[in-house]
Amino acid sequence: MATIEYLRTDPDLPPVGVVDRTPITPAKKLIFAGIGALGAVAWAILALARGESVNAVWIVIAAVCTYIIAYRFYARYIEWKITKPRDDVATPAEIYENGKDFMPMDRRVLYGHHFAAIAGAGPLVGPVLAAQMGYLPGTIWIVVGVVFAGAVQDYLVLWASTRRRGRSLGQMARDEFGVVGGIAAIVAILVIMTILLAVLALVVVNALGESPWGVFSIAMTVPIALFMGVYLRYLRPGRVGEVSAIGIVLLLAAIVGGGWVSETEWGVEWFTLSRVTIAWCLIGYGFIASVLPVWLLLAPRDYLSTFMKIGTIALLAAGILITAPVLKAPAVSEFAHTGTGPAFAGSLFPFLFITIACGALSGFHALVSSGTTPKLLAKESNARMIGYGGMLMESFVAVMAIITASIIDQHLYFGMNAPLGLTGGTPEKAAAYTNSLGLSGPPATPALFADAAADVGEKSIISRTGGAPTLAVGISQVFSEFLGGASMKAFWYHFAIMFEALFILTTIDAGTRVARFLVSDAVSNLGGGFKKFKDPSWRVGAWVASLVVVAGWGSVLLMGVNDPFGGINALYPLFGIANQLLAAIALTVVLVIIVKRGQWKYAWIPGIGLVWDVTVTMTASWQKIFSADPKLGYWKQHSLCVAAKDAGKGCLTAKTPEQVETAIRNTFIQGTLSIVFAVLVLVVIVVGALVCIKALRTGTVSSTEAPEQPSKIFAPSGFIATAEEKKIQAEWDALDGTKPDKVPVS
């Protein structure tokens, strides 16, 4: 049997694909065995080492080795048994190519685009908060979870959408489940987008509150992005690398300039903003960014964030390998058992898993994998690299985040992530509070918090909740040890804040635009004059839909900013539940598709992640709704605050009558949303189960895939083209450009 097969769809054209069935060589087997052994050693050290210092390098080694084995063997197994890509079949990008929404994109460029779209603040913030339970539980879930759940979801949703002309997750749910399941999916997406955008914006607010340096630097990214948009559109069209280099230089200049501005009287006066003011600024930014032309602000910010994300994470990984920092967090902390951690309430199960969220499994990724990416996929064989491989990269970002949170002083970590009501906001009270937690190491002193703030150029870093400032402190510690010394800590801290803000703002503006389209589509179904909303270029419709969207997430954001219990502490578990709800919907959709295609023997592949996700989500929802612990249950908090108001007293950390009123309103909204999420999970799971049972009972094999059309273009399958693929590419390059009509993708 031939090991190399050339796929042809036209006798007058070169092959459109290559199928390589060459067996793995003995040398490669030894290499993969060595990688597996090294990974096993690293995991053993992390799991078994007690009472001694553990180096962060072992986490990096364990993660990278696991990723390599999983991608080479488990992802390939999924490809062989379920997706079975065919490069002789045209993808939606080729069939509907219009240069706008549909366009075959170079697989390497699409990998970067997909990663930039899925990698928001989740893999940065969640692991940092989860570090309160120790480095080991979070690391295990981030790495193992992505292999069997997160990457599987992203890959299978991308595959399913590609086979259905790039349909969205909601459309696929409607096709597979019927009206009830489709409506549940659409409602879930809109509600989840609202919570997601609000929580991400809250992270920015907490990072920039009372920080003139940070506010100036982030504010400057808007004119920089606008300049880049005009530069690409009119001055130097198509020069992406050139304008990206200019943008990076301007970003660094903005960070340096922010340090200078923060030392002037006028700079302090103009750019020291309250958290409420920053929240309103973000709401206004979200609206403007969602209605401006995409080339003017969104596209250039994508360029900036992509380069900044990949470059910073690579530099951070190199810094950890070079400096080899010791993990100061315990493997498993006391809070993993008691569930009384100040960063977020609740025990290890289920709240560790919904807190980490995007780093291991994220429902938001399903929107991208069934949104822009399938419309740009040149070949079906590229889906494994982009879908499964892209999620592995995000997991690595999460690994870097949990390392940075685990190498800083633990008193400092908890002083930064505990609510203001516990730390008191002063170095003296913060030191007293963190010393009461029974943490390992020397007791904290007020100087610890004062010096830490001075080192990074801030007045205070106490109760800077949300994870972003903690990650920035960790990054500044690593970078300063091998790039510039202690004097560069302030620069690297604000560089990290800029880096995180670019992650987050990209999600806020892009997410607001996506939600705007969803609202427009939903309203247009009402018929009559509302049909105009179907046209995304109708300015009135765009403005109205954008106002609805920003009003939704903006109100939740302001609720979090004013929450006396600490906004991020209350909202992040809700965000995690919502995000995992969407993952349950996505995994249910692909599970049903697999069963209906007659591949029920492999239903366990998405089933593993689905069962675990539903168990976690429903347990967390139950506790948030019914728990009698006021630190955990929203309705318990609500009842206590109502009783306190009637008695004219304070409620938990809410001391004034105004704070009690705010707590009553916020806990009611949060408790109600928890119920809505739980109901949506049950609806989706029940409908999906009924569809699967019906398919198994009748034995009917059905599929909603679009009819196949032969491909007329060529593209290599992997990131690096093989020798055979390079030969075929040379044949396509030799064509005069008149055959075929479409341009080959190199």
From TrEMBL:
<keyword id="KW-0813">Transport</keyword>
<dbReference type="Pfam" id="PF02554">
    <property type="entry name" value="CstA"/>
</dbReference>
<keyword id="KW-0812">Transmembrane</keyword>
<feature type="transmembrane region" description="Helical">
    <location>
        <begin position="179"/>
        <end position="205"/>
    </location>
</feature>
<dbReference type="InterPro" id="IPR051605">
    <property type="entry name" value="CstA"/>
</dbReference>
<feature type="transmembrane region" description="Helical">
    <location>
        <begin position="602"/>
        <end position="622"/>
    </location>
</feature>
<dbReference type="GO" id="GO:0009267">
    <property type="term" value="P:cellular response to starvation"/>
</dbReference>
<feature type="transmembrane region" description="Helical">
    <location>
        <begin position="540"/>
        <end position="559"/>
    </location>
</feature>
<protein>
    <submittedName>
        <fullName>Carbon starvation protein A</fullName>
    </submittedName>
</protein>
<feature type="transmembrane region" description="Helical">
    <location>
        <begin position="55"/>
        <end position="74"/>
    </location>
</feature>
<comment type="similarity">
    <text>Belongs to the peptide transporter carbon starvation (CstA) (TC 2.A.114) family.</text>
</comment>
<keyword id="KW-0472">Membrane</keyword>
<feature type="transmembrane region" description="Helical">
    <location>
        <begin position="139"/>
        <end position="158"/>
    </location>
</feature>
<feature type="transmembrane region" description="Helical">
    <location>
        <begin position="347"/>
        <end position="368"/>
    </location>
</feature>
<keyword id="KW-1003">Cell membrane</keyword>
<feature type="transmembrane region" description="Helical">
    <location>
        <begin position="30"/>
        <end position="49"/>
    </location>
</feature>
<feature type="transmembrane region" description="Helical">
    <location>
        <begin position="388"/>
        <end position="408"/>
    </location>
</feature>
<feature type="domain" description="CstA N-terminal">
    <location>
        <begin position="55"/>
        <end position="620"/>
    </location>
</feature>
<feature type="transmembrane region" description="Helical">
    <location>
        <begin position="310"/>
        <end position="327"/>
    </location>
</feature>
<dbReference type="InterPro" id="IPR003706">
    <property type="entry name" value="CstA_N"/>
</dbReference>
<feature type="transmembrane region" description="Helical">
    <location>
        <begin position="277"/>
        <end position="298"/>
    </location>
</feature>
<dbReference type="GO" id="GO:0005886">
    <property type="term" value="C:plasma membrane"/>
</dbReference>
<feature type="transmembrane region" description="Helical">
    <location>
        <begin position="668"/>
        <end position="693"/>
    </location>
</feature>
<keyword id="KW-1133">Transmembrane helix</keyword>
<feature type="transmembrane region" description="Helical">
    <location>
        <begin position="243"/>
        <end position="262"/>
    </location>
</feature>
<feature type="transmembrane region" description="Helical">
    <location>
        <begin position="110"/>
        <end position="133"/>
    </location>
</feature>
<feature type="transmembrane region" description="Helical">
    <location>
        <begin position="490"/>
        <end position="508"/>
    </location>
</feature>
<feature type="transmembrane region" description="Helical">
    <location>
        <begin position="211"/>
        <end position="231"/>
    </location>
</feature>
<feature type="transmembrane region" description="Helical">
    <location>
        <begin position="571"/>
        <end position="595"/>
    </location>
</feature>
